[in-house]
C-alpha cells in the first residue's frame, strides 16, 4: 500500500512537469510574430492588413485527483496591451468558472480550487477576456480555451458480470473455446497504460486457460470426462497497466459445466437373469425386467432392448420402458408346461443415438442371457379346433345329429370333460349336447327360410373343477330343402284396352310377371310359368314363358268390352327347379279399360262408362241442409232427456234418520223412567193421535182403525208386532216393502228378564225359561233351546 502511494505521488509530479512544459510550449508557439499581424499583397497589388490579436493559446491541462495543500495552477493569461500598471482586468467565464476555476484579475493566473475527477468530467470550456478596470470596457474580444483533466490510474478493471456460466462438451479438444469474459476500465485509454488490460487465470488450471488480450477461456486438457467430474470453477483476473507491477486488477468467477456426449456404451450389471412364468399366463403379461446401465444422460443414455437369439423368440417379446430405461420381457404366445418347461433368450441392449466421433470406443451395446422357467398350473380344457362349423338339413326330425365338438384336459391329470351349451346363445333351445361325448343334436325341425345360420357356444369344463372351463363357437348351417313353392314377385295387375273384333291383336304383352322363391337358388330358379291344365286352351289369354324366370301374358283375341265384362281373373301355375319341384297357382287380375287412339289408358271403371252425369251443386247443398237439421233435432232430444224428473217421494235426511231408531244401551226396564218410554212401543201411533209416516208423501190422510190398536198398558209383544205388520199391509200409501225398525233397548227389572244370550252364557244363574212356551209360536224355537233344560237332565 505504501508503495502504491509513492507511485501515485510520482505520477502527480510528472504530470505537473509535463503541464508546465506544455504551457510554455503552447504559449511560445502562439506568440509567433505571425499572430500579431503582417501585411500580404492581394489581387492587383492591394495590400491587406490582418487584425492584431492580443493573445492566443490552445488548451490547458490539469491532473485529476490532486490532493496538495495549495490550489493547482492551471495557467496564465496575458495580453500584449497589458503594460503592468494594473489598468487591465482579466475576466473568466464558462464551465466551472468561479467555482472550480478562479482567475487573478491582475496577473491572469488561473487556479483549480477543487479536486477534479476525469471519470466524472474530462474537460471544461472557458471564456477569457481583458477589460478596462475602471470602465469594464472590453479591450480585447473574448477568447475560448479548454482545460483538460489529465488522467491517472485510479480505477481498477471491472467485469460486466460478477459470475459467468458456460458449457463445453466433454472430451473436447485442447483449445476449444468455452466463453469470453470482458472487463472495462474507467481510466483514459488514450493516455498511458491506465486502461490497458491483461487477463490471466487464477483458479481452474490445468483444465482451462485464458487469452491475455481477449479474455477467451479455452480448454487446456484433452478427454475431460463428465462422468468423472461435471463442474469446474474458474477465477479470471483482469489487470491494467498492461499487467505490470503496480496496476489495478479485478476478478470474476466462471462456472464451467461439461455437457454429456455419448461416449459410454450400455452395460448389464450381470450376465444371466432368471425369470419364471405360469403356463396359465395370457399373452401380454409381464414376465420380468432387465436393465443395462449407461452413465450417459439424456438422449445419449437412451437404451433400446431386443431379443437377438434363443429358443423362446417366438413365445416371448421385449419392450423398452423409456421412463425407467428397463427392458420388459412379456409373454407373446401361451406356453405349456407339459410341452416345454424352460426357455432361454439372448437380450441385447443398444444405444439409440450413437456419436460418430466416439465410434472407436467400441460397440455401443451389450448382451445378456435370460432364462425363463415355465410353472405348472391347472389349465382349463382345450378344444381340438378354435371353432366348429356343422351342417344340418332343414325340417330334419328332432334328435338329428348335427356334429361333434371335442376337448381335452392339457394337464397331466387328464381330467374327464363335461360339455354344455351356453343357453344365452341358444335361447330357442334348438339344440342339445351330450355332456359326455360332445355330440350336438336338434330338438325341433329347423327352417332355413327363418334362419340360415345358427351360432351357439359350447362349454367344456373339468368334472372335478367346474371353474376350469373353455368355450368354443359353433356355427351350424341349415341346408335348404325345396319346401317352398314360388309365388308372384309382386301383386301384378294387367290392363287391356277394349276394342272391336276387327282391330288386330297387339304383339306386346299385357303384363310381364316374375316369381320369388324363399328356398335357396338351387331349389328356386329357373321358374316355369303355365296355365292350369283345365284352362290350357283359354280363349281370352295365354302365357308365354320367356325361359329367364319371367313370362308374358298375351291376349288371344280382341273385342273386349267393359259393358260385357270389365274384370278377368287368370290363374297361372309357377313351378321351381327344385327336386322334387314345387308349384303354386297364382291369380292375375286383368282389367278392361278405356283407351285413346294411341292406346293410353283413360278409365278402367265400368260405372264411369254407364253414368253420364253426377249430382248437381244444388242437390249437394240440399243434402247438407238436411243433415244439419237432423243434427239439431238430435241435440235437442238429448238435452231434454238429460233433464231429471222430480221424485214422487221426497226423502229428507232427517226423515231417514227418524225411520231407523237404534237403542244401543240397556236401561232399567219398566221401572226406569229416564229411559225410553215403553208406551211408545205399546202405542207407536202416539198417545195424542195418529203419527203419519215420514218416509212417504201420502196422497190422502190415512186414519188408523181403532180395533187394531193395542191397549195402552198392554205388554204383549206378540200383539204389538202383529199390529205393526197389519198396519203396514193395510196402508195404501206405503211402498211395497216392510218398515224396518230396530229395537236395541232392553230394560231392567222386567218380569220377562233379559234375553241376552251373552249374559246368560257368562253367568251360572238358574233361570226358568218355561215362560217362553207362553209367548206363542214365534218363540217356540227359543223355548225349545232354553226351556227344556230339566227335560234334558232327566233324559240323561
TrEMBL record:
The chain crosses the membrane at residues 619-640. It comes from Crocuta crocuta (Spotted hyena). This is CAD11 protein. The gene is Cdh11. Residues 79-159, 160-268, 269-383, 384-488, 488-609 form the Cadherin domain. GO terms for cellular component: adherens junction; catenin complex. It is a single-pass type I membrane protein. GO terms for biological process: adherens junction organization; calcium-dependent cell-cell adhesion via plasma membrane cell adhesion molecules; cell migration; cell morphogenesis; cell-cell adhesion mediated by cadherin; cell-cell junction assembly; homophilic cell adhesion via plasma membrane adhesion molecules. Cadherins are calcium-dependent cell adhesion proteins. Gene3D superfamilies: Cadherins (2.60.40.60), TCF3-CBD (Catenin binding domain) (4.10.900.10). InterPro entries: Cadherin, Cadherin-like_dom, Cadherin-like_sf, Cadherin_CS, Cadherin_Y-type_LIR, Catenin-bd_sf. It holds the Pfam family CADH_Y-type_LIR. It is found in: Cell membrane. One of its GO terms (molecular function) is beta-catenin binding.
Amino acid at each position: 500500500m505504501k508503495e502504491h502511494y509513492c507511485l501515485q505521488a510520482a505520477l502527480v509530479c510528472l504530470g505537473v512537469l509535463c503541464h508546465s512544459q506544455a504551457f510554455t510550449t503552447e504559449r511560445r508557439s502562439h506568440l509567433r510574430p505571425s499572430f500579431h499581424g503582417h501585411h500580404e499583397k492581394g489581387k492587383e497589388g492591394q495590400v491587406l492588413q490582418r487584425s492584431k490579436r492580443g493573445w492566443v493559446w490552445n488548451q490547458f491541462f490539469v491532473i485529476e485527483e490532486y490532493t496538495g495543500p495549495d490550489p493547482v495552477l492551471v495557467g496564465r493569461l496575458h495580453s500584449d496591451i497589458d503594460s503592468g500598471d494594473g489598468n487591465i482586468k482579466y475576466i473568466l467565464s464558462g464551465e466551472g468558472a468561479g467555482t472550480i476555476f478562479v482567475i487573478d484579475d491582475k496577473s491572469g493566473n488561473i487556479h483549480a480550487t477543487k479536486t477534479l475527477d476525469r471519470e466524472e468530467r474530462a474537460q471544461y470550456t472557458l471564456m477569457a477576456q481583458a477589460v478596462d478596470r475602471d470602465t469594464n470596457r472590453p479591450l480585447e474580444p473574448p477568447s475560448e480555451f479548454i482545460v483538460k483533466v489529465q488522467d491517472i490510474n485510479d480505477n481498477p478493471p471491472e467485469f460486466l458480470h460478477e459470475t459467468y456460466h458456460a458449457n463445453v462438451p466433454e472430451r473436447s479438444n485442447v483449445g476449444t473455446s468455452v466463453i469470453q469474459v470482458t472487463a472495462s476500465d474507467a481510466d483514459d485509454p488514450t493516455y498511458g497504460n491506465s486502461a490497458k488490460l491483461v487477463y490471466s487465470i487464477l483458479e481452474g488450471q490445468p483444465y482451462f486457460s485464458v487469452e491475455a488480450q481477449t479474455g477467451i477461456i479455452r480448454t487446456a486438457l484433452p478427454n475431460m470426462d463428465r462422468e468423472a467430474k461435471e463442474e469446474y470453477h474458474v477465477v479470471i483476473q483482469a489487470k491494467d497497466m498492461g499487467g505490470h507491477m503496480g496496476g489495478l486488477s479485478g476478478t470474476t468467477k466462471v462456472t464451467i459445466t461439461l455437457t454429456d456426449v455419448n461416449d459410454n456404451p450400455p452395460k448389464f450389471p450381470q450376465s444371466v437373469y432368471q425369470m419364471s412364468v405360469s403356463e396359465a399366463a395370457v399373452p401380454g403379461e409381464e414376465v420380468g425386467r432387465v436393465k443395462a446401465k449407461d452413465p450417459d444422460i439424456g438422449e445419449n443414455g437412451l437404451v433400446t432392448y431386443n431379443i437377438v437369439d434363443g429358443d423362446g423368440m417366438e413365445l416371448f417379446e421385449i419392450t423398452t420402458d423409456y421412463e425407467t430405461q428397463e427392458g420388459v420381457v412379456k409373454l407373446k404366445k401361451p406356453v405349456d408346461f407339459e410341452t416345454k418347461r424352460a426357455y432361454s433368450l439372448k437380450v441385447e441392449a443398444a444405444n439409440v443415438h450413437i456419436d460418430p466421433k466416439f465410434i472407436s470406443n467400441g460397440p455401443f451395446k451389450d448382451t445378456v442371457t435370460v432364462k425363463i422357467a415355465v410353472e405348472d398350473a391347472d389349465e382349463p380344457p382345450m378344444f381340438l379346433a378354435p371353432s366348429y362349423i356343422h351342417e344340418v338339413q332343414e325340417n330334419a326330425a328332432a334328435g338329428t345329429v348335427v356334429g361333434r365338438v371335442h376337448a381335452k384336459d392339457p394337464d397331466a391329470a387328464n381330467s374327464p370333460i363335461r360339455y354344455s351349451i351356453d343357453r344365452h346363445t341358444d335361447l330357442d333351445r334348438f339344440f342339445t349336447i351330450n355332456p359326455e361325448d360332445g355330440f350336438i343334436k336338434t330338438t325341433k325341425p329347423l327352417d332355413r327360410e327363418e334362419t340360415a345360420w345358427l351360432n351357439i357356444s359350447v362349454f367344456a369344463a373339468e368334472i372335478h373343477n367346474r371353474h376350469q372351463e373353455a368355450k368354443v363357437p359353433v356355427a351350424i348351417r341349415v341346408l335348404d330343402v325345396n319346401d317352398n313353392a314360388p309365388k308372384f314377385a309382386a301383386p301384378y295387375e294387367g290392363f287391356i284396352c277394349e276394342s272391336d273384333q276387327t282391330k288386330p291383336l297387339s304383339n306386346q304383352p299385357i303384363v310381364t310377371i316374375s316369381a320369388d322363391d324363399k328356398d335357396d337358388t338351387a331349389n328356386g330358379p329357373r321358374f316355369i310359368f303355365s296355365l292350369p291344365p283345365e284352362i290350357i286352351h283359354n280363349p281370352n289369354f295365354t302365357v308365354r314363358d320367356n325361359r329367364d324366370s319371367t313370362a308374358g301374358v298375351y291376349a288371344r283375341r280382341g273385342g273386349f268390352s267393359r259393358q260385357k265384362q270389365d274384370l278377368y281373373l287368370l290363374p297361372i301355375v309357377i313351378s321351381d327347379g327344385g327336386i322334387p319341384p314345387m308349384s303354386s297357382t297364382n291369380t292375375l287380375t286383368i282389367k278392361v279399360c278405356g283407351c285413346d287412339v294411341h292406346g293410353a289408358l283413360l278409365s278402367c271403371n265400368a260405372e264411369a262408362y254407364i253414368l253420364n252425369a253426377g249430382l248437381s251443386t244444388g242437390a249437394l247443398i240440399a243434402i247438407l241442409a238436411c243433415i244439419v237439421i237432423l243434427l239439431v233435432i238430435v241435440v235437442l232430444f238429448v238435452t231434454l232427456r238429460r233433464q231429471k224428473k222430480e221424485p214422487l217421494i221426497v226423502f229428507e235426511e232427517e226423515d231417514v234418520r227418524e225411520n231407523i231408531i237404534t237403542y244401543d244401551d240397556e236401561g232399567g226396564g219398566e221401572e226406569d223412567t229416564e229411559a225410553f218410554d215403553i208406551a211408545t212401543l205399546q202405542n207407536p201411533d202416539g198417545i195424542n193421535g195418529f203419527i203419519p209416516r215420514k218416509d212417504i208423501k201420502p196422497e190422502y190422510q190415512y186414519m188408523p182403525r181403532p180395533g187394531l190398536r193395542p191397549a195402552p198398558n198392554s205388554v204383549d209383544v206378540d200383539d204389538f208386532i202383529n199390529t205393526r205388520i197389519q198396519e203396514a199391509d193395510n196402508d195404501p200409501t206405503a211402498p211395497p216393502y216392510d218398515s224396518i225398525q230396530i229395537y236395541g233397548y232392553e230394560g231392567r227389572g222386567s218380569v220377562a228378564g233379559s234375553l241376552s244370550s251373552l249374559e246368560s252364557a257368562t253367568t251360572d244363574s238358574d233361570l226358568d225359561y218355561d215362560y217362553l212356551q207362553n209367548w206363542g209360536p214365534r218363540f217356540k224355537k227359543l223355548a225349545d233351546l232354553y226351556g227344556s233344560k230339566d227335560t234334558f237332565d232327566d233324559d240323561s
